[in-house]
Amino acid sequence: MSENKSLLELRKITKVFSKGTIDEVRALDKINLDVKAEDYIAIIGSNGAGKTTLLNIIAGVFPPENGGQIIVNDKEVSGLSEYRRARYVGRVYQDPHIGTAAKMSIEENMAMALLRGQPRGLRVASDKQRRELFHAALAPLGLGLENRLNALVGTLSGGQRQALALVMATLSKPAILLLDEHVATLDPRTAQIVLDLTEMLVKRERMTTIMVTHNMELALRHGNRLLMMHKGRIVVDMNQEQRSNLTIRDLVVAFERASGEEFVDDSVLLRPGNVVGISDL
Amino acid sequence: MLDVAGHILSFSFYEGLVFGFVAIGVYLTFRVLGFPDLTVDGSFALGGAVAAVLIVKDVNPFLATLAAFGAGLCAGLATSLLNTKLRIPALLAGILVMVALYSINLRIMGGANVGLLREVTIFTLTSQFLGLENRIAYQLVVAGVLAIVVFFILNWFLRTEIGLALRATGDNEQMVRGFGVNTDMTTILGVSISNGLVALGGAVVAQGQKFADVGMGIGMIVIGLAAVIIGEALFRPKGVAKLLLAVLGGTFIYRLVISVALRLGMAPGDLKLITAVLVIIALAVPYIQKKVQHEWLPPAARW
Questions:
Q1: What's the mean pLDDT in B225-230?
Q2: Has residue A248 got a pLDDT over 90?
Q3: What ipTM does this complex have?
Q4: Under a CB-based contact definition with an 8 Å cutoff, are residues A48 and B142 in contact?
Q5: B174, B170, B229, B218: which is closest to B194 by C-alpha?
Q6: CB-CB neighbors (< 8 A) of A83 in chain B
Q7: Which of A209, B188, B199, B217 is spaced 20 to 30 Å from A265 by Cα?
């Protein structure tokens, strides 16, 4: 896949919070990243490494410091606000409540998602044709949501809402899918369902995907490229072959070598040799 | 006795319709957008003032009413711009515009009130056109037709692509932005429409009572809230159409209770105190119920 051309390019992305105060934090430090079309990248790193800040920069929640460039499909998007960037970027958050609207029906939520990044007009948002589309998109989940289009989303469980959020984020095929620890708050069984669904959607739609996770096992099992971040920098970047036989131990060693520090996130070492992260417990 | 009952009922029905515009406006901001907008008191009087002054200048009363709606849109625009572009909290933005409107309304009317006693209003025009002599009858016709028009337009609009984005803005702003909606725009649109409706109510009420007064909007926000809360509590509506009808129904019941209380000898001056107490009770009861049952309670919202 390396001969593919870049879909997303980040050039010298720096982000500083609380600038000029004693709390100043350099959340991202001159990040350069090339994401090829159909890449499925897993990003790991301890708390405060800058993973979520990186996703926020890509999604346009806030701009990078001067000089940083974000390029999608050869088009510079750094100056576009979040809502204007929505046509390029779909996102699923850790909290299922953020990705769906509770007081609206499943159908209305899907209708919102369908028009991602498109101008919205005075046409009634949902008609028979669109309902059939929603039905077809929801049926593969196997959750029965397609038969409950009129149910309010607030009545769904967290897992159902996250599955719906995932379908909504991918419904109108954004250029890039951002997954921000999207199974971290789900119980192990539901997390597995949502992960399987993620695999299916990413493969079927050939979606370029960036997944942030705390869970090393997830990062090893999913995707074709693995990044590790530390203190606002990318310290490890492995392709498919490089990470194919890795264990979590190897990852920790790689991390220590790359960052020059001892790995401090106990959560991944709670059960040495076993591949369980804190988010599974 | 039956006559009295019939009169009270039909009068409450009329008032339920005209104050229903206010209640629907309040519903749009408080419930749909989650934007506690207090501009209402000012924009209600603004609607009355604009319509009355234009009618005195011999403008067609229907055009004057439409102009009042437009003036209300502008009031809502001012409040929502303060909030979205200058980041002034919604409550404060509404209060600021409401206070400013007091002076503006005095300027528009050139005094504290404008009389419409012998002027041509939407009511007198309709009564001539239909040959209806009975005042309550033609008032009901005018208010009913206007309410039906507003109901159908809103019921359609809130289900369009833009309307859906507007409702979703109040539900989950972060999500809606993620799907490419400019939430500043939807907020501005919603708050403007809301105040347009409130001003429309003011214009109709002024023509019904044959005068506009700078103080006619005082307490209007509480009346609107009372109607919304009553409508939601009694009808527990689901879906856009039923919600709108429930708000109208809530307004009718509120006006009915007030009319009966006035008949029974309540001093008109006590009206606002009683309305406020009603709203306090309606808001407090669910909290006290939960407290008694030792349920978990979130801290009070500060908005």
A1: 91
A2: no
A3: 0.87
A4: no
A5: B170
A6: 177-178, 180-183
A7: A209
Closest to B32 (Cα-Cα) out of B154, B211, B202, B174: B154
Task: Decide if A70 is inside a domain.
Answer: yes
What are chain B's domains?
2-270 (1.10.3470)
- Using CA atoms, how far apart are residues A23 and A171, in angstroms rounded to an integer? 40
In a domain, A52, yes or no: yes
Domain region containing A23: 6-101+176-200+209-280
Helix-strand-coil split of chain B, %, nearest 5: 80, 0, 20
Q: Count each helix (H run) and each strand (E run) in chain A, helices first.
A: 10, 10
Distance CA A196, CA B198 (A): 51
In a domain, A156, yes or no: no
CATH number at residue A11: 3.40.50.300
Our CA angle for B124, B125, B127, nearest 5°, is 60
pLDDT in tens, A51-79: 999 999 999 999 999 889 999 998 899 88
Name which of B165, B167, B200 is nearest B180 in CA terms.
Answer: B165
Structure confidence by residue, pLDDT tens digits, A6-60: 899 999 999 999 988 888 889 999 999 999 999 999 999 888 889 999 999 999 9
The SS3 of residue B295 is: coil
Residues of B in contact with A108 (CB under 8 A): 164, 167-168
Nearest chain B residue to A116, by CA: B179
Our CA-based measurement puts residue B182 at a distance from the nearest CA of chain A, in whole angstroms, of 6
List of residues 6+ apart from A154 with CB closer than 8 A: A102, A103
Tokens of B273: 């105190």
> In angstroms, rounded to a whole number, what is the distance separating the alpha carbons of residues B169 and B156?
18
A59 interfaces chain B, CB cutoff of 8 Å? yes
Cβ atoms of B13 and B137 within 8 Å: the answer is no
Between helix B183-209 and helix B135-157 the angle, nearest 10°, is 170
Residues in chain A with CB shorter than 8 Å from the CB of B161 are: 111, 115, 120-125
User: A105 to chain B: nearest residue by CA?
Assistant: B239
pTM of the full structure: 0.89
Task: Decide: B217 and B25 in contact? Cβ < 8 Å.
Answer: no
The residue with tokens 């997390």 is A191
Q: Which residues in chain B (129-148) have CB-CB distances under 8 A to chain A?
A: none
What residue type is A114 in one-letter code? L
Compute the Cα dihedral for B123, B124, B125, B128 and give only its sign: positive
Q: Answer yes or no: do B178 and A118 touch at CB < 8 A.
A: no
Name the domain count of chain A: 1
Strand pairing category for A89-92 and A176-180: parallel
Q: What's the rounded Cα separation, in Å, for the pair B182 and B162?
A: 11
Chain B residues close to A100, C-beta within 8 Å: 172, 175
